[in-house]
Amino acid sequence: MAISSRWLFLLSAIVILTAQAVAQTHKLCFNDKGNYTSNSSYDKNLNHILYSLTSGARVNYGFFNSSYGNNSDEVHAIGLCRGDYNSDDCRSCLNNAASVLKQNCPVQKEAILWYDYCIFRYSNRSIFGVSETGPTFFGPSFSTWIVNNVSANYLDRFNDVLRTLLEGLRDEAAAGGSLRKYAVNNTIAPQNMTLYALVQCTPDLPERECYSCLTEAFQNIPQCCSGKTAGRVVSPSCNFRFETYQFYNPIAEALQQSSSSPLAPPVSPPESSDNTNSTPSAGNHAILITIKRTLQHRNLVRLLGFCLEGNERLLVYEFVPNRSLDHHIFDPKKSANLDWASRYKIIKGIARGLLYLHEDSRLRIIHRDLKAANVLLDIEMNPKISDFGMARMCVLDQTEGNTNRIVGTYGYMAPEYAMLEQFSIKSDVFSFGVLMLEIVSGQKITSFREGENIEYLLSYAWKNWREGTAANLIDLTLRSGPLSEMTRCIQIGLLCVQANVADRLDMASVVLMLNSNSIALPLPTQPTSFVQNGVPLATSMKLDTACRPMSQYEVSITELDPR
């Protein structure tokens, strides 16, 4: 049968893309560094690290590092994503690399794998803070299919331009601090070419070690890509790449260039004026592009843009067709169509979104108004946390703060926030626990009904948990579902609303518990309340004013239906 030219073209494209995908992966199993056996201590420790990565371990600025075990069975692991890769894609790349590496190196205690966008390695020796320049993979580029040669007439000039560009980026990346050692830039090369380059070290390296690693990597240019318009060298501790097209994310580049500067302060409201065509200030732009980049996660509603005119400020979000969660779980007809698998997916998605806000985003964000009405559902009923008008942004090492104005929704508010004006990531955990119990029960916390009586949902949940009748809390439409999983969610929800702030789970623990039924759960104690014996609940939290409002007016953003 004759094959049309169209099909020949498609088949050729598939062959090329397949070849490219293969070329983008390099792995090495070290056969001379010791072996382990299945189900040995080393194997279990390695599995623990790999599981922690897949179940939500912290990945800061695209960097993952972890150690687990003791003595010769201790496992050390490092994962690094390219600096312009977002958090979701980074975690996906590292998860895939870890899985592939474990399968392809089933007995070796040390192994390493390179993808185009991430690297993952593990060993039974300490590999943190140590520059390792070998083994090295290099070539024109992992992902470039055809690479042009530089004209001999311009080769010396091209090499000079390339060396100047790379050395400048090396200096910038090496001085990048402990969170990020990454730099990108471009310059004009001979023959009207624009030359783009990227350099990166693992951020655990001291400045001198990063500088030395990149310097040694540059020395591979004659072997890898002499006279070529593209090249790449990758080692365990550092890498660089250059191309004649912009292969990195320009938005990430702009943020990277400003990451050394503190966040611009909130902009004061403009003075009254008859001029309704006032131009937005640079500060407004700086704060809002920062927010747009920070709120990029599949379980956060996506900010598309903003409009500023005079005193008018509007945020433009993605269209989410299935409205908010409260329209589904609190409506008797609609809730019947929301089975346990759908509700469990929603619970886990909200947890992942909160974990990103608390741990993995560029700035730590405390939402302060998490509730069913502020969780939107997309076409596939995936949850997206929305309404950040009351949120506070903190730098990464700050987890708590105080305010002079209480905003939010009573019932979802943690008592230390409602009574003492203190908030923290554990305030969001409290709200999540309340929301989780609402999703399981299908009833609002403030109007929970048991027959003819109206009772507070948390006290009812605790009473039934204590008496061994937790199934009474479950929505009647779910009674045919997996009872053990639903009861486990009730227990996790109660652990999120504990009276002692320090006893509440953090979102990393919540995500881990939701993704593994084999993890033993602590026993909850009585949930928190706003008063105990007539006395406001006391906490041991320190006051901290370093968190800033994401909305300068601290008001909720009203959205028109459909949401």
Automatic annotation (TrEMBL):
Source domain of life: Eukaryota
Subcellular location, record wording: Membrane
Record keywords, A-Z: ATP-binding, Glycoprotein, Kinase, Membrane, Nucleotide-binding, Receptor, Repeat, Serine/threonine-protein kinase, Signal, Transferase, Transmembrane, Transmembrane helix
Location of region: Disordered: 259-280
Any single Gene Ontology cellular-component annotation: plasma membrane
UniProt KW Cytoplasm keyword: no
Pfam families for this protein: PK_Tyr_Ser-Thr, Stress-antifung
Domain Protein kinase: 218-521
GO MF annotations, alphabetized: ATP binding; protein serine/threonine kinase activity
Signal peptide positions on this chain: 1-23
InterPro entries assigned: GNK2, Prot_kinase_dom, Ser-Thr/Tyr_kinase_cat_dom, Ser/Thr_kinase_AS
Keyword Kinase listed: yes
Membrane topology recorded in Swiss-Prot or TrEMBL: Single-pass membrane protein
GO BP: response to stress
Domain Gnk2-homologous per the UniProt entry, residue ranges: 24-127, 138-247
The protein's name: Cysteine-rich receptor-like protein kinase 10
Protein's organism: Carya illinoinensis (Pecan)
